[in-house]
Amino acid sequence: KPLNLSCVLNLGDYGLTCQWEQGTDSHLPTSVVLKCAGSRAQAVTGCTPQSGHSRCTVPRRLLQLYRQMEIWVSATNALGTAESEHLHIDPMDVAKLDPPTLQSIQSIPFQTDCIALAWDVARGTEHMELQCELRYRAPEDPAWALVTGIIGRAGSAQHCGFLFGTRYRFQMRCRRSSASASASAYWSEWSPGRDYTTHEKAPTGKLDAGWGAQPAGAGGRLEVQLRWKPPRQREANGRVLGYRVTLSTRRRGRDPATVCNTTHTQCNFSVPAGTRRVYLSAYNAAGESAPTEVILLERKGQPPAGLRAVPGGERSLWVHWEAPLAPVVAYVLEWQRLTAEPGHCSGCWQMERDGAATTALIRDGIEPFQPYNISLYPLYEGTVGVPIHTTAYSQQKAPSHAPKLHLKRISKSEAELCWEPLPVEMQNGFITSYTIFWANSIADVASATVSPSLSSFVIQGLKPSTLYKVHIMASTAAGGTNGTSLTLVTTMLDDSEIQFLFLTLGLVFVLLMVLLICFQKNERMKEQLWPSVPDPANSSLGKWVPAAVPQEPLQVLAAREPGPAAISTVTVLEGEEGKQPGKEPPALPAALPALPRPYVRQEGPGEPVQYARVAGAGYRGQRLLPEPAPRFYENLRGRGDGGGAGDWGFPEEPPATFPLLQGLRIGGAEELHE
To answer: Could you name the CATH architecture of 3-89?
Structure first.
């Protein structure tokens, strides 16, 4: 069975075009036709759709205009016939007319908020009774305003309630008025749009203004920062050309002194100290508004409490507060983006004239992921309250970046990290925490959560001489962002241990240096630890015994007091056997031949040689007998023939073992023989 049959009459050729939806496929060859019948005529086939289509047009010759007709769709296959619902319509009732044409739009001078419109109906519809509609809207309006009940044949109409100095777009459509009760009647398309701007009028209403004042230094002047909201379109009555600030109102036709005349919505000016009122007005091409009195009050009233802001949407904020105890006349609400320059948004404020209000919705200038500083000023009768502040985001997300970690100090078990706080423009929300992660080479991962107010952290419990990778994550309520990884290696020893080790080594080194210097410079210590004793056994004189010595007088030194003497030559002599001690030896010859100089160990120029006495086989540790004072041998006699050892005249029987160190060289070549 075909469904949803509908038809429309085209006034161009007066053909009736009908369309429908095909029923369920029967999987059999099916023929579809559109049938129509007049009030007194037999049913005829109006049209047959093309294969695969579900629409066709009934020609004008088969239609009866201004009379009821019956129209339906018939589908037939080998199993039978199915028909759609039957339509009973006057073809003219479903005629779709061409749209009218707007000719002129004018303001009515005496009724300043009304306009008059004139139009022409479509060709071929001049004889019809038409019902028309008018719609209009301003560019800032979200929807069209609709005016109904307009008689089309009149060709003109009036309508009121328009704003002054506002640009509107107008459109119009029509249909047959006799078909208004028919559900199947069609409106014409909307006419092409036509723009019109209503005439202007002087601005009305009061301006919302806020201010700040401070002394201007010397001269007794007061510096005032005044700002205000532009008037609403309904009160602007056209395009505002500028604003004027004066110190008084117009009196007796005299213009007051103007302190500021600007096209902006803020102005800075100075006034005499003690000024408590200024007057603000707006003007357009039609005139100037009544002045708005601005009272410069001191901020000393009671502040509100409990100010907070929550998201009202992606680009709006709901502000809540608690009303103060004193009655409030109005509230001034300000907001400023933290990342913007001061004064970036001169219109980012609004006045709540309901003193009992405790909530307000901020819509202007709010962007997601940006922090806003919000201030609330209560206005009392005769004074302004101290403001209260808060910060809010309309929407949050994870930070754009995480802080960069820096290593402050490290030991064998601890590492202190620090970082710079994230800039406000990169936070994208309130930072709720920082999380530090660290892991060694065997993937032992640990973490710690840090308050957002901190900028450093000490990792404890690390292993000595181990490599770690560390990174930080910054988090907001909407998510977190990881930073780059920092690689660090713990030390083998702590700083205190390293300092103790170096101190110990330093002390040992200093001690060694002191000992070395003492050993090098202190002669007494050198003599005590390693005395310089010559070995007489290595003397060449000790191994040489002359066969015969010519007689020569011996020059004997006078007796001298015992004392330290410098010894430079050592001569070892052995007594002959058979000589008896105590007997005088024969006299020496007058001149002895020069003896060969024995081997002498020289320690160095000017350096004294240790006196040594050798008796028997040893020289160290032996007990020395007291030495008798030296005496002269008077019986020394020498022979001139240079005989052997017996010719010297020594005692005939000296002790068998009496090797004796007998020679001394004092200063020069003198020698003493005993």
So the answer is: Sandwich (2.60)
Per DSSP, the residues of 383-439 read EEEPPEEEEEESS----S--PPEEEEEE-SSEEEEEEPPPPHHHHSS---EEEEEEE
The conformation of residue 263, written as its DSSP 8-state character, comes to: S
Say what the pLDDT of residue 541 is.
64
Q: What is the pLDDT of residue 559?
A: 45
pTM for the full predicted model: 0.55
- Residue 268 neighbours by CB distance under 10 Å: 12
Order the strands of the 130-137 sheet from edge to edge. 145-151, 130-137, 167-176, 194-197
Q: How far apart are CA 239 and CA 455, in angstroms?
A: 54
Q: What is residue 39's predicted lDDT score, i.e. its pLDDT? A: 77
Classified by CATH at the fold level, domain 299-393 comes out as: Immunoglobulin-like (2.60.40)
Q: Residues 14, 124: contact at Cβ < 8 Å? A: no
pLDDT of amino acid 590: 44
Distance CA 484, CA 401 (A): 10
So what's the pLDDT on residue 639? 42
Cα separation, 470 vs 489, whole angstroms: 11
Secondary structure letter of residue 515 according to DSSP = H
Write down the domain spans for the chain.
3-89, 99-197, 209-295, 299-393, 396-517
User: What's the one-letter identity of residue 563?
Assistant: G
CATH class of 209-295: mainly beta
- The Cα–Cα gap between 437 and 434 comes to 10
Number of C-beta neighbours around residue 370 at 10 A: 19
CATH topology of domain 396-517: Immunoglobulin-like (2.60.40)
The enclosing H or E element of 469 equals: strand 467-476
Q: Do domains 3-89 and 209-295 have the same CATH topology?
A: yes
What pLDDT score was predicted for residue 404? Answer: 93
CATH architecture group of domain 99-197: Sandwich (2.60)
pLDDT digits (tens, 9 = 90+) for 440-495: 888 788 999 999 999 999 999 898 989 999 999 999 999 999 999 999 999 887 77
Q: How far apart are CA 417 and CA 382, in angstroms?
A: 55
The whole-number pLDDT of residue 542 equals 60
> Closest Cα to residue 99, out of 63, 135, 142, 64?
135
Say how many residues make up the chain: 674
Structure tokens at 121: 């109906």
d(CA 424, CA 338) in angstroms, rounded, equals 8
Q: What are the two backbone dihedrals, phi and then psi, of residue 408, each rounded to the nearest 5 degrees?
A: -90, -45
pLDDT, residue 111, reads 66
- pLDDT < 50 stretches in the chain: 180-181, 554, 556-561, 578-579, 581-625, 629, 631-674
> CA-CA distance, 372 to 395, in Å (whole number)?
11
Place of tokens 């005439």: 199
